[in-house]
Amino acid sequence: MLEVENLRVRYGNIEALQGISFHVREGEMVALLGSNGAGKSTTLMSIMRLPPPEGPTVASGSITFNGADLLPVAAHDIVARYGIGLVPEGRHIFGNLTVFENLKLATFARKDTQKLPDDYERVFSLFPRLRDRRHQRGDTLSGGEQQMLAMGRAFMSGVRFILLDEPSMGLSPLLMQELFRVLKELNEAGTTILVVEQNARIALKYAHRAYVLEAGKIVMDGPAHELARNSEIQKAYLG
Ligand SMILES: Nc1ncnc2c1ncn2[C@@H]1O[C@H](COP(=O)(O)OP(=O)(O)OP(=O)(O)O)[C@@H](O)[C@H]1O
Ligand SMILES: [Mg+2]
Fold first, then answer.
1. Residue 79's CB: how many other CB atoms inside 10 A?
2. Ligand 1 neighbourhood includes 39 CB (under 6 angstroms)
3. Using CB atoms within 10 A as the burial measure, which of 3, 22, 46, 59 is most buried?
4. Sheet holding 68-69, edge to edge
5. For 101-118, how does the pLDDT look when each residue is reduced to its tens digit (9 = 90+)?
6. Number of domains forming the structure of the chain
7. What is the mean pLDDT of the chain?
8. CATH of the domain at 110
9. Is residue 214's pLDDT more than 90?
10. pTM for this structure?
């Protein structure tokens, strides 16, 4: 579904990705692991075609989605035309809107409006807390609830491929498990997922495969259960 080949990107003179290659097949849940500054968010911004200064400049390589070249595509078309959605680091919900309004706003570009009632129901059954709080303002939600809302928004936007940037950030271990269980459920229901995580333990528990990024290079990859048993990974990322 997604194929990244030999991708080199930079911010000014700094090369943030030094020729990375990876792929995500339809129906997979793939994790991209790595520590601070490895280039994980940069990878997601490259796929979403976020322009500078926030996003990087692509120097060489390719990003294709179902065979289509994404490099010349504008950021707003990535969601609308290609059905790729990003749940960015730090959530980005609308604090002055209610939970329901936040979800509703995410559906604006959808043409299949007859599916909306079922999709709201699906989000509320995946996240019962959001149902209870549907008339509450976004900025009064807890951090974990905001993360759920951000995921709910990505789902309501109707995309079939979701990129997530460190969804476990700042959550309690219990809430982390809850969130990843829901991600897995979404994945099993047909959404393809690429999840960026510093928390290798939880990501490897739920993902099918993973790649490890270090200083702009992919240094390891494989099935999640194999990486979880790998001694180098254990030393560096699993404490
Ligand atoms: N907009 C930007 N302008 C300049 N440099 C940037 C920009 N965004 C990121 N960088 C640099 O690119 C490198 C990779 O950053 P990136 O945000 O992709 O790392 P990350 O793996 O997501 O790290 P973290 O786990 O801390 O979020 C870092 O050295 C960072 O300082
Ligand atoms: Mg990041």
1. 18
2. yes
3. 46
4. 14-24, 2-11, 57-65, 68-69
5. 999 999 988 888 999 999
6. 1
7. 93
8. 3.40.50.300
9. yes
10. 0.93
User: Does residue 192 have its Cβ closer than 6 Å to ligand 1?
Assistant: no
CA distance 139 to 204: 31
Lowest mean pLDDT segment, chosen from 29-43, 163-177, 207-221: 163-177
Residue range 53-65: average pLDDT? 96
Query: Can you tell me the distance from the alpha carbon of 103 to that of 165, in angstroms, rounded to the nearest whole number?
Result: 19
Task: Order the strands of the 217-223 sheet from edge to edge.
Answer: 84-87, 161-165, 192-197, 29-33, 209-214, 217-223
Tell me the residue range of the domain where 32 lies.
2-237
239 pLDDT higher than 80:
no
Surrounding residues of ion ligand 2, Cβ less than 5 A: 41
Identify the pLDDT of residue 170: 83
Tokens for 206, please give them: 């739920």
Ligand 1 pocket check for 55: Cβ under 6 Å: no
Dihedral in degrees, nearest 10, Cα atoms 24, 27, 29, 30: -10
